[in-house]
Structures are given as structure tokens and as C-alpha cells.
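Lecture 7 notes: from sequence to structure.

We start with a single chain of 449 residues. Read the sequence below before looking at the structure.
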Amino acid sequence: MSKILSSIIFLLFLHHCSFDNKTGIWTDGDYLAKESIKKENNKKKLTPIFSKKENFKKEVKAPNLFDYKFSELVKNINWTQEYYNDQNNLSNIFYENFNNIIFKSSKISKRKLNKNIYFIEKNFIYSDIKGTIYVYSLEKKKITYKYNFYKKKYKKLNIKVNLIIYENVIYAADNLGYIYAINYQDKKILWAKNYGTPFLSNLKKIGDQILLSNQDNKMYSIDIYNGDNRWSLLTDNSVLKTTYKNNLVLDYENNLIFLNANGSLYSIDLLNKKLNWTLNFRPSLNYDSNNLFYANPLTINDNEVLVSTNNNLSLHNTTTGAQIWSRLISSQTKPIFSNEVVYILSDSNLLICIDKVNGNTIWSKNIFSQFASSKKNKIINKINKIKYFYLTSNKLLLISKNGYVMEFNPKRGSLTKVNKLLNKPYLEPLFANGNLYILNNSKKIIGYN
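Now the structure, written as C-alpha cells:
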């Protein structure tokens, strides 16, 4: 009888530990938690997609007729957020790659800088590891404003700041749990709040809210006018800490799609504040117990989201989460999603063109295969690892750690040009007004047309 009684007590305990309307994962509002989670679990959306198979590594000859269409050419003026736009999709940017230097700044910082540099209204905006935010004027060729929010007690800490700029306001979130807003034209801080846990994601803005996540995989909606928490959503936390930075992307129907450090992908209806669907992408333990979750940034094109994780590439419908196709391909850079095609640079230096409709390989080619065998190793060492990958003016552009630019024909995979930039790129490049801007190792901004 005691065993039966213990079992009943245990089952009652489990029942009372489940999500309810008062203690649900949504906070700061009457949002649906229990119903959404139960519904998704019933649909069995949390299904691991990894399997123990060999990754794609072979070359495929390009077809004689390439009748696929790229996205329309875009000549952007500004670059105001990480990964360029709300969909994280730099699908076909205008840049002729003439390799002519049109601008060179003096040294813009004495300190090490944070990962990204932004561009708005002919101003570069960036931050250093002590939390100072800078505004550098392209026209005046000098720093016109800088601001440090942090007190002396933080001076020994390295501060990682993620930014997004809207009109004349810089919104900053850091690894101390602060989020604040600065009007860089009026040169004053508008508001600041501390949420206690380090923020660890890119930032998105929709309407009057800033969306971001902390290191515990908790999503926040922050009011742009005062920094208040409008709502929050606690997703599943990761037991093992990885180097992966939570990634956010917005679709065209007011849904936020969020991939957290535990490998869980969530679609959140921002208008109705409810969970649409969720998928699981983390590697199973029997696949590789040492393989922590990692992913490239999400990319959306039309109503489809491209997910590139440790060793898998898959395309999903943004409305339902349904998988359209999946491929065992590991990408060393963020994939390019351009209308009817997807471009991947694999970990084995294989440049791959994929049919978006069915996931089939249109062509694939090793980026070093067109060099003579006797010179190949020397060239590979000279060029070094490819860090950045773009489609520019209907040409594939690969930029290496050592500052080499390799240009490829996107219809056949053939190498058309190799250039050497002035010094090595220090931060991720950006494109604006048809020009390429790179911050080099000397912390000087170099502009190319």
C-alpha cells in the first residue's frame, strides 16, 4: 500500500508542477502559456532532426542551362542592425567590386571594439569593450560624439554591447543586463534599465518595442519610449553553455522566430502574444556527446525560414513550422538565401548552390579546385579561412581572414577574380551606397567601390 500511495503522491506532484495561467512561461500580462505548450506537444513538434550520416562533400557539375532567378538587386543606404535587416537576409546587394579605395579614416579607437559596425545618415556607429559608443562622421572624417554609460566600478570588465539604430536613437543591450537608449543627435541618454541577467542576442525593432533575449533564453519585449518590460517569455534553458548567441528574425506577418542556445526554434505571434509552433534542432547525445549546439543566424525569404545548425541545413514554412527539406551540410558562414536558390560554403570549402524548392544540389565546387595542384596548399595558406560570404550584384563574394576577396560566378561556381584588400578585416564588413566598408586591423575604416 505504501508503494501505491507514494506513486499517487508523485503523480499529484507532477500534475501541480505543470504550467498554469498564473505561473506560465509568459509574464507581465495575461498571455497563453499552458494551452499553447500543450497543443504543440500534442502535435509532436519537438522532434530531433539529426541523424548519424555522412555530410555532403562531393562536387557536382553545373547544368548547361541555369534558369533560376536571384533576388532583385538592392542598393541600400543604411545598415542599422546586425545581419542588415529584419529578415537577416542580405540576398543580393549592389556592389561592383572594382577594388578602388574611395575612403580611409584615421584610427577610430584605441581599444578593442565589439563585433559590429553600423551606418546611418553618413555616420558609422560602433562600440568598444569598455562600453563606449562612438559616432564617426563620414563627411567630417572624425568622431562627432561618444558616450560611456558605465560607472567606474565596471572599468575592469569587458562589456559586450549589441546595438540597433532607429532614426536618431541608438538602443544598446549589454552583458551586464542593461538596456538603454541614446539620442545621438541631441547627445543625451533617454532612459536606462537593468534586467539583472546578461543579454545575449541580436536586437529587433517592431512598432514601439525592442525584442531581445538574455543568456537564460528568456525573450523580452521592451518599450522603446521608457525601457519598461511589456512582456517576457521564458523558453527552455540550456544545461550546457555554448558559444552560440541567441538569434532573432522577423517574418512578414508580425511573427518573431527565435532560435535559442538550447537548439529550440520558436515562432511567436507578436500581435496576439501566443506561441505558434516550436521545433528542436539540438544534436542528440547518441549522435555526439561532445557536440554542443551551434547555428548560423536564421534567414527568412518570403514565407520560409532557413536554419543552418551544426551539421544540418533545413528550410521551414514560417506559418506552420513544417519542414520543406533537410540536408546534411555544415556551413562555415551564414548561408545566402536569394529568391529561388540557397548558397552554402561548407566546412570542407565546398561552394554549393541549392534549389530552394526541393533542396537538391544544382552545382557544387571546391573554392580552391581551380588553382594548380602544385600551388594549391600555398594559396590556401595565403588566403586563409573564409569569414564572410555575400551575393553582390549577381556575383558571389567571399572575404577571407587575411583580407582576400574571391569572386565566383553564381551560375557555375567558377572563380572569376581574386583581390587583396588593404590589411585584414577586423570587424564584419558592411555595404552602403554601393560601397564596401571594412574596419581593418589598424582600426581604420577603408571604403571600396
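The chain has one domain: 25-448. Keep this in mind for problem set 3.
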